[in-house]
Design goal:
- With 461 residues, this protein is an alpha/beta fold.
- It folds into three domains: 67 residues; 134 residues, Leucine Dehydrogenase, chain A, domain 1 (Rossmann fold), CATH 3.40.50.10860; 158 residues, NAD(P)-binding Rossmann-like Domain (Rossmann fold, 3-Layer(aba) Sandwich), CATH 3.40.50.
- The chain has 18 helices and twelve strands.
- It has a seven-stranded mixed β-sheet, with helices on both faces. It has a five-stranded mixed β-sheet with strand order 1-2-4-3-5, sandwiched between helices.
- The two termini are 32 Å apart.
- The N terminus is likely disordered.
- Bound molecules: NADPH dihydro-nicotinamide-adenine-dinucleotide phosphate.
- NADPH dihydro-nicotinamide-adenine-dinucleotide phosphate binds next to α10.
Length: 461
């Protein structure tokens, strides 16, 4: 990514770039075989050069090297018994990355691909995202290489109980507050909360977010990430005189984030023509029927290929990347990391895409991001665009502390305000540091400043 600023001298820029390169090399050396963590670090480090050039105090305090080293990384054994009476073993993770501005906060991911690198990339991103929300939450993330797919309810419950039997000693409403992510939805959060409550012998509602509203969850939390992504893109579009109305939208995935991104895009007058799962994608020129997707994925836990059984006019294709060949005005990658590579980005651009909103975490490769920016496609990076989920999680913590509950409309209004502020603060930082419209640089700088200043204020700890 080309870094330029009109705010600092050439010498200051050189010194900042050299500092960033040196720390990046050290991070790669200290964390070998962690490709995803290196990728997240590279994106953030490079975009911070303008702020280091302008404010050398961050270099003097060696903030970058400190912030890239987690405060704590916990791994643990998770033994459980399957339905055939056989003992299975998975590995659990929790990274407590940064607590400068609040208790660690970030989701749990249950997926066979989970390893140290994935958890650290997610945790590192979370620090800046959480800061961007303007709410007092630090950065953390966790999960396990357990695969919930094809498991019975009983197996999922026994696994999550075993997971919490170790995790409980590391978390708490003022310490570390996990939530959901891939493979961890309302069912898993319910089992996790039940086990925590039983072990602690206390009703500490604020220890987990994403709970069902009947026992302390916030209205709008299920919708928050998907809705928030669309609210963010709406701001980006409005700034250029565009909108969702009458636009064609492609959304990858068909999980929590995707479903509510589709719902809000429809509410704003768009037509969503495609969605996917990890096996393939459906293309419905008439517009995806969201009721069918919700039932198939949220209730029946089936594959997206079943969609065409009920909607024979739609087409189903095996594989995940083909979805980006469908012409669209707005693309919302909401499935997983690195799902848009350089070739897919090129195809989207050739087909005239106007805006990208990252609902998933790090769904675009570094090369894809560069292409979008070079071609002046409006690009909403994940840590800004998908921050609505963790923002409403923080609102859930507030409601738990106050022992009260806001209405759906109240939380939705707060979510809209938060997404607008994230957009404005990111665009302002991008302009201030000489990169107008570059929300990657803007979001990273806006998220970084508060955390870095809090770290300096709290001394070398
Ligand atoms: P879910 O588990 O609810 O859904 C994930 C969806 O993505 C599923 O439809 C899954 O398909 C699909 N998927 C997984 N891998 C691929 C792939 N390679 N290609 C296409 N589809 C794929 O997870 P969430 O919706 O919660 O999370 C999605 C993304 O959003 C993640 O990157 C997560 O980190 C991020 N995120 C989530 C937040 C939240 O509040 N939930 C907050 C902020 C970010 P299948 O059913 O086959 O597994």
């Amino acid at each position: 990514m080309a870094i330029m600023t009109n705010q600092a001298s050439t010498l200051e820029r050189q010194a900042a770039q050299e500092y960033v390169n040196k720390v990046y090399e050290a991070v790669v050396k200290r964390n070998p075989n962690e490709a995803e963590f290196h990728q997240a670090a590279k994106e953030i480090f490079d975009s911070l050069v303008p702020i280091f050039a302008k404010y050398p105090k961050y270099i003097e305090h060696n903030i970058l090297e400190r912030i890239a080293e987690p405060e704590r990384m916990i791994t643990f054994r998770v033994p459980w018994v399957d339905d055939n009476g056989k003992v299975q073993v998975n590995r659990g993770f929790r990274v407590q990355f940064n607590s400068a501005i609040g208790p660690y906060k970030g989701g749990l991911r249950f997926h066979p691909s989970v390893n140290t690198s994935i958890i650290k990339f997610l945790g590192f991103e979370q620090i800046f995202k959480n800061s961007l929300t303007g709410l007092p939450i630090g950065g953390g993330k966790g999960g396990s290489d357990f695969d919930p797919k094809g498991k019975s309810d009983g197996e999922v419950m026994r696994f999550t109980q075993s997971f919490m039997t170790e995790l409980y000693r590391h978390i708490g409403p003022d310490v570390d507050v996990p939530a959901g992510d891939i493979g961890v939805g309302a069912r898993e959060i319910g089992y996790l909360f039940g086990q925590y409550k039983k072990i602690r012998g206390a009703y500490e509602a604020g220890v987990l977010t994403g709970k069902a509203p009947i026992y302390g969850g916030s209205p709008t939390r299920p919708e928050a990430t998907g809705y928030g992504t669309v609210y963010f893109v709406e701001e980006m579009l409005a700034d250029k005189g565009l909108s969702f109305k009458d636009s064609t939208v492609v959304v990858s995935g068909s999980g929590n984030v995707s479903i509510y991104a589709i719902e809000k895009a429809y509410q704003l007058g768009a037509k969503v023509v495609a969605c996917s799962d990890s096996n393939g994608y459906v293309y419905d020129r008439n517009g995806i029927n969201l009721d069918t997707v919700k039932r198939l994925k949220e209730v029946e836990r089936k594959r997206i290929s079943d969609y065409v059984l009920e909607h024979p006019e739609a087409e189903y294709y095996e594989g995940c990347t083909g979805i980006w060949k469908i012409p669209c005005d707005i693309a919302l990658p909401c499935a997983t990391q690195n799902e848009i590579d350089e070739a897919s980005a090129q195809t989207l651009i050739e087909n005239g895409v106007k805006a990208i909103g990252e609902g998933a975490n790090m769904p675009s490769t570094l090369e894809a991001i560069d292409l979008f920016l070079e071609n002046r496609v409006l690009f909403g990076p994940a840590k800004a665009a998908n921050a609505g989920g963790v923002a409403v999680s923080a609102l859930e913590m507030s409601q738990n502390s106050m022992r009260m509950s806001w209405t759906f409309d109240e939380v939705d209004a707060k979510l809209q305000d938060i997404m607008k502020n994230i957009y404005r603060n990111s665009i302002k930082a991008a302009e201030e540091f000489g990169h107008p419209d570059n929300l990657v640089i803007g979001a990273n700088i806006a998220g970084f400043t508060k955390v870095a200043d809090a770290m300096i204020a709290q001394g070398v700890i």
